[in-house]
Amino acid sequence: MARHRNIRTMNYDEEYDGYDDVYGHSVEDDYASSPSMQHFLYDRSQEHQMSAYMQSDIPEEDELVSDESKSGNDVGVPSRIPPLGELEQAQLYSCLDLLRDRMGDALSEQAGIDAILACNFDAEKALDQLLKTSVASTLSKSTKSIIKPKPAPSIQVEKIRGSEVRDGKTPVKVVSAKKVVATGFSLPPTGTDASSSADRQPAKQESAVEETSRQLGCLQTPGATPRSTSPADREATPSATPKSQSRTRENRVDVASEYVKERSGTKALLNLVVVGHVDAGKSTLMGHMLFRLGQVSSKQMHKYEQESKKLGKQSFMYAWVLDETGEERSRGITMDVAQSQFETETKSITLLDAPGHRDFIPNMIFGAAQADVALLVVDATTGEFETGFESGGQTREHALLVRSLGVSQLGVVVNKLDMVGWSRDRFNEIVARLGAFLKQAGYKEQDVFYVPVSGLTGENLTALDEPKLTEWYSGPTLLQAIDKFRPPERPLNRPVRLVISDIFKSVGGSSGCCLAGRLESGMMQTGDKLLIMPLNEIIQIKNIAINEVSKGSCFAGDQVVLTVSGADLSDVSLGSVLCDPSQPIKVTSRIEARIVIFNIDIPITKGYPVVIHYQSLSEAATISKLIAQIHKSTGEVVRKRPRCLTKQTSGLVEIEISRPICMELYKDYRELGRFMIRANGTTIAAGLVTGIL
Amino acid sequence: MKLVSRYIERDGTGRVALIPENPEDMWHAYNLISHGDTIRASTIRKVQTESATGSSSSSRVRTMLTVEVETIDFDTQACVLRLKGRNVEENPYVKMGAYHTVDIEPNRKFSLTKACWDIVALERIDMACDPSQNADVAAVIMHEGLANVCLVTGAMTLVRAKIDVTIPRKRKGSTSQHEKGLQKFYDTVLQAILRHVNFEVTRCILLASPGFVKDHFFEYMMQWASKNDNRVLIDNKSKFLLIHASSGFKHSLKEVLADPAVTSRMADTKAMAEVKALENFYAVLQTEPSRAFYGLKHVLKANEGQAIDTLLVSDNLFRSQSVEERKTYVKLVESVRDNGGTTRIFSSLHVSGEQLTQLTGVAAVLRFPMPELEEEPLDSDEDS
């Protein structure tokens, strides 16, 4: 009875709802496969934008829009298809789909069909042909159709794709987006931009082609990707240059001219790291230097003097300028890199004071990775120089590390010479011994200079007046010597890369997080949207600060603090990289690398556990494979698949990192392709990334 | 582990009854049981019964089952061993050939029948039943921003907690964020220690770090203990041992265990012996490369020449699914012993064992140099 009632009261409509849709009829009823009908259907995959149908109010684009509406959206016009067999027809449509996928709406169906037939159903050829003819015939139309952006080929991750598409779907949209993003300055006239962009094109073109082909791997027609065609195309149609730039990063004014505008009046920027054995007097030297240059007020200095006296460590008073944590002060050693700023006659110096103790070498590596030039401080006191210089001392290790991290200009500061009575012989002895070693370590003689100083008394830092020293030394003071360093070339035109070295809450009222780091390449402006890897989120820059002064923009080489919004920053870890959303950095846990092995006790075998130091990051890793032993200077393979790599050799190895990190190839980004390998508290090798697997 | 009975025939067949007692015994059991063995243990089975009227009811019954093992699962974190296989003995509840998954439970007897008890398996039983081998040590390896809380037992190193936080760096003029971050980090580590370390069984707790992190942390911990009147920490203060380590990553545990301060404090545990053996191998490889070899092909060649002095094998090779492979390694071990060499079977859960596993799993130090081996290419399995 109960069951009968159930059936009686059953709502049949509801019960059978959906029944019909699933069974008993073919899918084709729902989705018309007939080509003529398809044109009347709204296809999301074709990336229509409402703005594409609307009349744009930007006058210079007017022509293009109407052009597109004529050529691209000829949906109603029945196309002329020659009589074809069933198979051929199918082929034709699949080719046509492919072409449309490539070229977007700009492709008129008739032109496509003709091209396909001419090329005998070879989509690739047809595409080539179409592109060529369109370039030749109508310039504006061609740029339009080619540059029609699609998800960038380099993109592996959906999220980036989203942002990409948002940024520029149709060229029309890009222009409006540009208006929004590019606050702060007006767009330059087309002509100047075209000419200036021409000179940076070679580099960009090269990198772009390289990038796309490497990342996509399965690139079918190199000529069809927007990024690789556009530079070539742009040369042919210079008038279209600014509009064809579809990405946020690129729609700004030319980086180089902006750089000149912003920075021409200021002194050249130089990142200087101070390294040396523990207790060589690095912090004291630089602290005193800062004091002499007026970076530290005498009131502050007096305070340090009093406080250090209380602890019975008066000799550390200058070091306290840079060693600020309680731990560092009470122990009397630097633990983490301290950053400060001073200016010489022609340079603006960012000072990085690295720790000398061997336990803090990871921090020192971080400091050295950000530096352009280095000062090596050695203790001239009898016995002290020797301990620092013998194996186990940090003088050697630091000098090697700094060289391996790409610093080629080195100033050797012979410190504490007052302790040996400003002895000329001692100075010469140290110079001779270090000179031989540094040459062997790969420093060029002309790039190394030696300065005798006393950090504590302040002699020869900014001025030379000790009579015992002037007897035999007349050369430059330390400040003058630093001034002579040559600033390196900055990769201004490369896509943005910034390795995050510090994350902290912003001080003051503004919400959001601060990220600190050195901008490796490119430029940034407030309002820029950047991708943070390996988190893979888009963030927006709210503020850029250099030395606690807000700036509207920053350039490669700057040490910056960014206030950002947009992503959950509790997930951001050290070593994450901010990069250009269109050209993201690679994330990997396996790399192939060329390593140069230092003086080690234990040979490196397969499976050897190490710590890999890369920029601000240190991560556990294992050498998973020894591919070859390489001759140190010639680079020839000495032995394939060696059993082990012993000291003072070079090798090609595969390294497996315990979690995915951001890395770049050495040939793409020199600074970002270098890393150090350490094990058991000593640096065992320096490496260059040769492959990302 | 308790050995209840042992009947092993001359030809190697036979059965052994064991009672596992602690998590480590599960690991030993995991290494003993291989594919194709039969195991008899008490287990719970869900049985469905249908009454005469057609209504069915299900109940759970505890019963003794004998299954032929097909898959073996071991969870290193929870130390649970799970064996799946077909029923091979008549049982009132379970049909012959029906699948059942047996959980090996602590303090319940199970008996294991093997077609062939080899020397490695028999040694494993001896080792598992030796109470003196038990030495529980906790180790906290850290550097600023990273800490690994591990438990080191005779045969296992278990990472109980990994703490990875970002500590803001010191900034010019403001160190408060750095110090706050550091406090938070210490607090997290402290909580992890309290949660994971059983002070009653742990003989000592190693605090290892580069620099002063360990001292600073120890100070912080003791201050916290006296502030909160935490008796456990105060009473066990003497159990803490501060050791230098080069980093906070897990593999630094190797350095920690090799530290003389630790060696003198702890009994000569298996973990330490393994670390030493591997270190010795590397030392020989550096000084006399023709006396140290790794990779199955090289080691087998060396064994043919009766040259092996010390053989290092990772125990995961004996857990191999393939009987052939397992036999190869057992034969190698037996033959080295016969020739007067020593063999060391590394636990693949220890850091040194992990490293050996990466290094093809088998390595040997020779009595005399065999330079001819050096010329030969490495095994083909190197490619994989």
UniProtKB/TrEMBL annotation, chain A:
Bias-annotated ranges (Polar residues): 222-231
Pfam families: GTP-eEF1A_C (PF22594), GTP_EFTU (PF00009), HBS1_N (PF08938)
Keyword Phosphoprotein: yes
Subcellular location: Cytoplasm
UniProt domain Tr-type G: residue ranges: 267-492
Predominant localisation class: cytoplasm
SUPFAM superfamilies recorded: EF-Tu/eEF-1alpha/eIF2-gamma C-terminal domain (SSF50465), HBS1-like domain (SSF109732), P-loop containing nucleoside triphosphate hydrolases (SSF52540), Translation proteins (SSF50447)
GO cellular component labels: cytoplasm
Matches recorded under InterPro entries: GTP-eEF1A_C, HBS1-like_N, HBS1-like_N_sf, P-loop_NTPase, T_Tr_GTP-bd_dom, TRAFAC_GTPase_members, Transl_B-barrel_sf, Transl_elong_EF1A/Init_IF2_C
Listed GO MF terms: GTP binding; GTPase activity
Reactions that this protein is recorded to catalyse: GTP + H2O = GDP + phosphate + H(+)
Entry keyword set: Cytoplasm, GTP-binding, Hydrolase, Nucleotide-binding, Phosphoprotein, Protein biosynthesis, Translation regulation
PANTHER family recorded: TRANSLATION FACTOR
Full protein name: Tr-type G domain-containing protein
Organism listed in the record: Daphnia sinensis
From TrEMBL, chain B:
Protein name (Swiss-Prot/TrEMBL): Protein pelota homolog
GO biological process: nonfunctional rRNA decay; nuclear-transcribed mRNA catabolic process, no-go decay; nuclear-transcribed mRNA catabolic process, non-stop decay; ribosome disassembly; RNA surveillance
Cofactor: a divalent metal cation
Chief place of localization: cytoplasm
Domain eRF1/Pelota-like N-terminal: 1-130
Keywords attached to this entry: Cytoplasm, Metal-binding
Compartment list: Cytoplasm
UniProt record similarity statement: Belongs to the eukaryotic release factor 1 family. Pelota subfamily.
